[in-house]
Write a structure and sequence with these properties.
single chain; 302 residues; alpha/beta; Rossmann fold; nine-stranded mixed β-sheet; 9 strands; binds S-adenosylmethionine
């Protein structure tokens, strides 16, 4: 188990995670959750003890948003293993999720593991039927994703990965037309480049993550289902949009240190458009459900 200090660029405040949670839950694809529930019901072995029957591993769990979304939508008693490199967020997740129950009022058991996902995952995935994560993969490297897909294949589990950013960022005016001028183009390209910055173990996947996940699991014999899960931020989401744009401004200052004035002018203009309700903001994400073929599963459980 790793105790190394997490990179500051891969740490998140609980305040930010709480602010984004309603938009995340609204954006997620309900059908993929339903399909994951059906898969678990078909494959969980009722003769095994709970921990070996319905273990669900939540990678990069933060303060538990993914668990709060999924657990009440899945049937049957569940054993959740929460994984994060931030001990404070893990403690908050344990506290905030202790009274959850399943869709059919069965108990939810919690276990937490403080480690880096760059470390070996074999032990972490032990006994897992479903591995899940939300808003995580842009932070990881291609090697992390490859190692995760290998470990999932070996354990024969299904995976449900929600809210991986796909690079789409658009402001729309009241008629629904996309506003995509030279400054928008320039800033959004710089933001994408910033998302690829090293978070401690090499270049991060940024908006390439959905494609990499899809290819990695398909290549290992998984059946793939995907859906778009964009944030649509309008007047009811102004605090989130404002916080998001403040983060973008900071990232753009780092990425374009010679162009602070241009960054600030673009930021001020688009923020003003949002606050005056002249535009809405779309931020693209993808959800992915990958289920192992029967052959993969029988190989894994043999
Ligand atoms: C954007 S937050 C998402 C948290 C949560 N899944 C949610 O949807 O609110 C990413 C989470 O991944 C964790 N994280 C990032 N990189 C990690 C790594 N290499 N190992 C373990 N945890 C990591 C962070 O501490 C953070 O809790």
């Amino acid at each position: 188990m790793s105790r190394r200090t997490p990179n500051a660029n891969a740490l998140f405040s609980e305040q930010w995670l709480t602010l984004r949670e309603p938009a995340d839950h609204l954006a997620r694809d309900a059908q993929l959750t339903h399909a994951a529930d059906s898969w678990l019901t078909r494959h969980a072995d009722p003769s095994r003890p709970l921990e070996a029957r319905r273990t669900i591993v939540d990678l990069g769990c933060g303060s538990g948003s993914n668990l709060r979304y999924l657990a009440p939508r899945l049937h049957g008693a569940q054993h959740w293993r929460l994984v994060d490199h931030d001990e404070e967020l893990l403690a908050s997740a344990r506290l905030r999720c202790q009274y959850l129950v399943s869709a059919d009022a069965q108990p939810i058991h919690l276990e937490s593991v403080n480690l880096s996902l760059a470390d070996t995952l074999e032990e972490t995935l032990q006994g897992a039927y479903l591995v899940t994560a939300s808003a995580l993969f842009d932070l990881l490297t291609a090697d992390d994703i490859g190692a995760l897909a290998d470990a999932c294949q070996r354990s024969g589990c299904a995976v449900l990965f929600a809210l991986s950013i796909d690079g789409l960022i658009r402001f729309h005016d009241a008629s629904g037309s996309a506003l995509y001028g030279d400054d928008d183009r320039f800033m959004l390209a710089a933001l994408q480049a910033h998302q690829h910055r090293d978070k401690g173990d090499g270049p991060a996947m940024g908006s390439e993550a959905p494609r990499r996940l899809r290819e990695s699991f398909r290549h290992r014999g998984y059946h793939i289902r995907e859906a778009a899960s964009p944030w649509q931020l309008g007047p009811e989401s102004l605090p989130l949009a404002e916080a998001l744009m403040a983060g973008w401004r900071e990232a753009l200052h780092q990425q374009l240190p010679q162009q602070r004035d241009r960054v600030d002018q673009w930021h001020a203009r688009r923020l003003d458009d949002l606050l005056r309700e002249r535009v809405t903001l779309t931020v693209g994400h993808r959800d992915l459900l990958a289920t192992p073929s029967d052959r993969t599963r029988s190989g894994a459980r043999a």
